[in-house]
Design brief:
about 90 residues, mainly alpha, about 0% strand
């Protein structure tokens, strides 16, 4: 059950990151680009901690530490994307 949940979360997180990346390319929006990178980091953290836990038989503390680092960085990038100001073009 846990594996299904992790795989589903990785699929949905990857889809959000992909769609945000497409939107950023279409609109040439730096904040949207950072938003997609933030979601990609969050998703990669979940996948990485899961894979490493299975391959190296990590205990829960080590898995959560790895995931926590990715979550911290990903949320930092998301926060930056929210507070980034767009330049006033054509004003």
């Amino acid at each position: 059950m846990v594996i299904v949940l992790v795989i589903s979360t990785v699929i949905f997180g990857g889809l959000i990151a992909y769609l945000a990346h497409r939107a950023a390319r279409r609109s040439h929006s730096r904040p949207m680009q950072l938003f997609s990178v933030g979601f990609a980091i969050l998703t990669a953290g979940l996948a990485t901690s899961g894979v490493l836990a299975v391959l190296f038989r990590l205990d829960a503390k080590e898995g959560l530490l790895i995931q926590g680092v990715f979550v911290l960085v990903g949320l930092g990038v998301l926060l930056r994307s929210i507070y980034m100001r767009r330049p006033n073009v054509g004003v």
